[in-house]
UniProtKB/TrEMBL annotation:
Its cofactor is Mg(2+). Belongs to the xylose isomerase family. The lineage of its organism: Bacteria, Pseudomonadati, Pseudomonadota, Alphaproteobacteria, Rhodobacterales. Its main location: cytoplasm. Keywords: Carbohydrate metabolism, Cytoplasm, Isomerase, Magnesium, Metal-binding, Xylose metabolism. One of its GO terms (molecular function) is xylose isomerase activity. Mg(2+) 1 binds at E230, E266, D294, D337. This is Xylose isomerase. Its EC number is 5.3.1.5. Mg(2+) 2 binds at E266, H269, D305, D307.
Length: 433
């Protein structure tokens, strides 16, 4: 045991009336909703990078956190793991997620970095066996180091492409060895800054080739988890190829990968793309590629991906409504890709940020389940489109332009506008929240 979280108790469910700050008010892991426990519905995961690797810097200032594991030695990486698994246990979080660069020191060579990762993976294995914590997904950091400043799979330099492919292989091997349930590809810099020096066709084809190699390797080694792509718009590049769910699905269809790859969708990225979180989830559900989610929020005044913990129950409820309509998570879950603010420097802040977010998600999911079980929202939606199930509606789906034109003339069709009833529907949603 370390002393970083000394004096902080395990967070347990005490109910809405408790005045204990270190308790769940709404997240009871054993509570059954729609035939499953909240633990099995939500499948919470802690993001290793924001919780243990981020130093609190921003574009105008450096480190504000002083953590005893900050440094480049393997002993410090193991101390970081010790603290991380203590936090997983305090929160009763069943899963965690990581990039390679979060957990191992950077070596002087690729071989040294790979060796460091292998050593930490073995250490993780011991910790996971001791605590029962599992790996929701692993991924590769192909964006921080300056070698990736022009992208990884889309880089104009084939040596960077090769380095990226080799890094992905080691991270897939690590994920597979630890029993990870998904592998995520996050294109942090798969985009361009200016068209003046960009070959769009070559970059997109190289990106597709990398993804195809990942899928092929999954089958070669017998990895049973899902391959997930995480859409990411605009920042840090001017344009990202994996802009949103629609863009990624079109890409998958173009290269014949739509049956091999699903999506990990983040709330903050949805907002940056000009969408709502539920929009992105609904699109993925309609396409049949909803895999997992990163749950956070942006500061709507900043215009930046601020990765804050969720605190808006109605927004979260609408997100989980789409997840439940899709049948719920299978290999995916709720990863908190969220970080405490750079002024929140105490260990308690790290615990309470997660605990509060878990409560918000529990409230949101329970509200979403009530909406779905009650059926009023779906009933009103079906009512709006009911005309398409009539004989006339069916004729419109099978007739050609000439026939429809003649029908409108013959029957003197002159439709009147009908209310979309948006305010009434929003009031209905708020009744459940």
């Amino acid at each position: 045991m370390t002393d970083f979280f000394k004096g902080i108790p395990q967070i347990t469910y005490e109910g809405p009336q408790t005045d204990n700050e270190f308790a769940f008010r709404h997240y009871n892991p054993d509570e059954v909703v729609m035939g499953k426990t909240l633990k099995d519905h939500l499948r919470f995961a802690v993001a290793y990078w924001h919780s243990f690797a981020w130093e609190g810097g921003d574009p105008f200032g450096g480190r504000t956190f002083e953590r005893p594991w900050f440094g480049s030695e393997m002993d410090l990486a193991k101390l970081k793991a010790d603290v991380a698994f203590e936090m997983f246990s305090i929160l009763q979080a069943p899963y965690f997620c990581f990039h390679d660069a979060d957990v191992r020191p950077e070596g002087a060579t690729f071989a040294e970095s790979s060796s460091n990762l292998s050593e930490i993976v073995d250490y993780f294995g011991e910790k996971m066996e001791q605590t029962g914590t599992k790996l929701l997904w692993g991924t590769a950091n192909l964006f921080t180091n300056s070698r990736f400043m022009s992208g990884a799979a889309t880089n104009p330099d084939p040596e960077v492409f090769a380095y990226s492919a080799a890094t992905i292989k080691t991270c897939m091997d690590a994920t597979h060895k630890l029993g990870g349930e998904n592998y995520v590809l996050w294109g942090g810099r798969e985009g361009y800054e200016t068209l003046l020096n960009t070959d769009l066709k070559r970059e997109r084809e190289n990106m597709a080739r990398m993804l195809r190699m990942v899928v092929d390797y999954k089958h070669k080694v017998g990895f049973k988890g899902a391959i997930l792509v995480e859409p990411k718009p605009q920042e840090p590049s001017k344009h990202q190829y994996d802009y949103d769910v629609n863009t990624v699905f079109a890409f998958l269809k173009e290269y014949g990968l739509e049956n091999e790859v699903k999506m990990n969708i983040e709330q903050g990225h949805a907002i940056l793309a000009g969408h709502s979180f539920e929009h992105e989830l609904a699109m993925a559900r309609e396409f049949g590629i909803l895999g997992s989610i990163d749950m956070n929020r942006n500061d709507y005044q900043s215009g930046w991906d601020t990765d804050q913990f969720p605190n808006n129950v109605p927004e979260v409820a609408l997100a989980y409504y789409e997840v439940l309509k899709a049948g719920g998570f299978t290999t995916g879950g709720t990863n908190f890709d969220a970080k405490v603010r750079r002024q929140s420097i105490d260990p308690e802040d790290l615990i309470l940020g997660h605990a509060g977010a878990m409560d918000v998600c529990a409230r949101g999911l329970k509200a979403a389940a009530k909406m779905l079980e009650d059926g009023k929202l779906e009933e009103l939606r079906n009512e709006r489109y009911a005309g398409w199930d009539t004989d006339f509606g069916k004729d419109m789906q099978s007739s050609d332009l000439d026939a429809i034109h003649d029908k409108v003339l013959a029957d003197n069709i002159n439709p009147k506008a009908k209310s979309g009833r948006q305010e009434r529907l929003e009031n209905l949603v708020n009744q459940y929240c």
